[in-house]
Amino acid sequence: MPGLIALAIAMGIGRFAFTPLLPMMQEDAALTVAQGGWLASSNYVGYLVGAILALRMRFSASAVVRLALVLVVLTTAAMALTDSFTGWAVLRFVAGVASAWALVFVSSWGFSRPEIVFTGVGAGIMATGFICLVLMAEHVSSANGWLVLGAVSAIGTGIVWRTFSAPHAGPSASAPATFTWTPQAVRLVACYGCFGFGYIVPATFLPVMAKQALGDPAKFGWSWPIFGLAAAASTLFAGPLRKRYGDRNVWIGAHLVMAVGVALPLMSASLAFVLASALLVGGTFMVATMAGIQEARRVAGSGARTLIAGTTTAFATGQILGPVVVGTFHSIPISLATAVLLLVTSAYFLRRTA
Q1: pLDDT of 172 higher than 50
Q2: Sign of torsion over alpha carbons 20, 237, 103, 289
Q3: In a 3-state reduction of DSSP, which class is residue 153?
Q4: What pLDDT digit, counting tens, does each position of 11-22 carry?
Q5: In terms of pTM, does the model score above 0.85?
Q6: CB crowding 340-351: b at 16 or more within 10 Å, else e
Q7: List of domains in the chain
Q8: What secondary structure letter does DSSP report for 108?
Q9: In sequence order, which residues have a C-beta less than 8 Å from that of residue 287 and are 6 or more positions away?
Q10: CA–CA separation, 59 vs 69, rounded Å?
Q11: How confident is the model at residue 237 (pLDDT cuts 50, 70, 90)?
């Protein structure tokens, strides 16, 4: 449960709170889709920096997780205290650093039920989505929305604080073990980077696409809770599949199903297609995350933290590029089409290296 809550805060809020709040910020802060893309990229650049720093950090895992959670609380609440685009970009950057640290160090903690721990990401997304759905229905401002989510993250941090105050008993608590980069490890990192680009456009702009299809927040606001519910449930269902088929094959399957989900908004901008996309992408992105990280743990052995940090770095690089393409070309479809190609190609190379 502590790992689940930590990832719900760090990822569900620190990483993804911006997604359901973006339509609200468009309404009361006149934020454009292009500006939203750049703010999203700022968070993803922070995620990349955090993953790179995690490669060389010599602090205890418990200290890093606690620091990450505190940073998420502070940067989330602080979004309400400024209307400066530059200020928002800085805050989203720091939140990205914190969320990467949390993912890397919680993932390498060695919890016995990883499928339960990774449910936290989807649970956090779902909870954030429901909160924003209620806030939109009550016409609450986006600034107050950030404050509410900051308070929620503070409560969650208080709940798990004692657990992450204890020394980490795992093999990589203070410093990453020696790790030798092999061709297989490099291929895993590259495929995980393709996954980062593949999921990020719908994960960033689904509520915006739903809003364009149907302007009523009582209806389009459901896209993000559905995404989170699918993400949370999928990690539980993936447990038996991982045992039967192995992490590599589950990862491959997740890429292919996700490619279908990413392609759906290209076929139709209707609300039905957008919500189906939310189900398929939401239902596979945490499966791919979990299976990819567990495969990295298997390949790397005692050097798991280094390879997990490497895959997280590649993932962050891929997810930076998706919103940048949107912001540069002012086109969500171009990014979606590129994402489909990368997901299918990476699934092929994962199969080849199995």
Answers
A1: no
A2: negative
A3: helix
A4: 999 988 998 898
A5: no
A6: bebbbebbeebe
A7: 2-352 (1.20.1250.20)
A8: T
A9: 234, 235, 238, 250, 251, 254
A10: 15
A11: confident
